[in-house]
Amino acid sequence: METVDLARLQFALTAGAHFLFVALTLGLATLVAVIQTRATISGNPVHLRMTRFWGQLYIINYAMGIVTGLVMEFQLGLSWSGLTEYAGNVFGSALAIETLVAFFIEATFLGLWIFGWDRLNRWAHLALIWVVTLTAYASAFWIMIANGFLQNPVGYVVEGGALRLTNFGAMVANPAAQVAFGHVLGGALITGGFFMAGVSAYHLRKRTAEQDFFRKSLRIGIGVALPATFFTATFGGLGFATMQPTKLAAWRGDADGLAAAQAEMVAKYGPGDYLPPVGWVNGAGTAMMALFALMMFAGGLSFLLMFFRPAVRGFRPWHWLLTGMIPVPFVTMIAGWIFREMGRQPWAVYGLLKTADAMSPVTEAQMRFSITAFAAVFSVLIVINYWLLARHARRGPATVTLGAPSVPALSF
């Protein structure tokens, strides 16, 4: 395997792993904010306990997502200095804003929310989780603005062999970014919704004591996941209008379209192979569509069944189905991400900078060591995150520590 392929594989593994944490974080943050809103307005103790239980799972996933994001940042300097030197002045502005939003605003308000239980006014505490949720959206938005520029560069000029940003508004309004943001946001809501419904179905199947708690949680999860599938499909359809011709031809398996796109690229950029890996693009796109159909079926069936109390209480095949659906949105998101990113190849910045030219001057041995180290770190983090989420999800709300009254210190 060539050095550039090793570098691409390393970034694919680490970015893909981080993306899984982000998807669940965005989805759960929204669900927790909605549940706490209802608890604050109604004063219902069940919804308050739901906020604490699902909020604790959200915090576990958020913490691991931050760690993987920090580790992934090192790769831009280690493996892709050519990209940052050539285009960093443009897409780096979006990444800088994202860093300010994520680390200074989102993390600050999340800390206040975690430690503000019973110390802040209930409306002020509710406002905190909504600020956390909206800043999480903003963080994802600026990431997609940066990625959208790589997919469809706009608002720049070339000066001294590097790009300079000339129109910040054009970069923000880039349709390749705007449509992708809506698609990712919808996918995150599907992920969070099926996660909540699946964990709830597990407890209903096990006949745990908190039946009313998990019946309500299941209905909320499905009530979010099903409309989110339609929302995601809408933006996915719009995304085809912004797709590169080589990617579109690869997705369709259109030999004539691929030949025409290759000829157009050769005429514009000179001799070379400008086609993406057709098998990967077509396979990932097909998997994404097939899994989307599965989620649509499971979500639609569950939406009908959740109105029948006997089914919610004791229809075990349905409970098994929902529990088994927990990983499906994650796999679908990764398939969509592979489809989007592999379809851009061989370009790091489409039409401007090839991936091979975006690399740092590293040797194959250095790259092999790097990918081994990064893969090991991320594997450990993923296993720890899964273990913590599964452990706390199985234990149920009785052992939740988030928002629990603090024990006063003993005095002598």
SSE map:
Blueprint lengths: L2 H40 L2 H34 L2 H35 L6 H30 L4 E4 L2 E4 L2 H5 L2 H31 L5 H29 L5 H8 L2 H15 L8 H28 L3 H6 L1 H9 L3 H15 L4 E3 L3 E2 L9 H32 L17
Antiparallel strand pairs: 1-2, 3-4
Order of helices and strands: HHHHEEHHHHHHHHHEEH
What ranges have pLDDT less than 50 throughout 5 or more consecutive residues?
407-412
Question: What's the average pLDDT?
Answer: 89
Strand order of the largest sheet: 1-2
- Fraction in helix: over 70%
Rg value? 23 Å
First-last Cα distance: 69 Å
Please outline the major beta sheet: 2 strands, antiparallel
What count of domains describes the coordinates?
A: 1
The total beta strand count reads 4
- The helix tally amounts to 14
Return the structural class.
Answer: mainly alpha
Strand % is under 5%
What characteristic shape results from the CA principal axes? globular
Notes on the structure:
- There is one protein chain.
- The protein is mainly α and 412 residues long.
- The protein has one domain (3-244, 277-393).
- 77% of the residues lie in helices and 3% in strands.
- It has 14 helices and four strands.
- It has helices at residues 3-42, 45-78, 81-115, 122-151, 168-172, 175-205, 211-239, 245-252, 255-269, 278-305, 309-314, 316-324, 328-342, 364-395; strands at residues 156-159, 162-165, 347-349, 353-354.
- The strands form two sheets. A two-stranded antiparallel ribbon has the order 1-2.
- The radius of gyration is 23 Å and the shape is globular.
- The model is unreliable at 407-412 (pLDDT under 50).
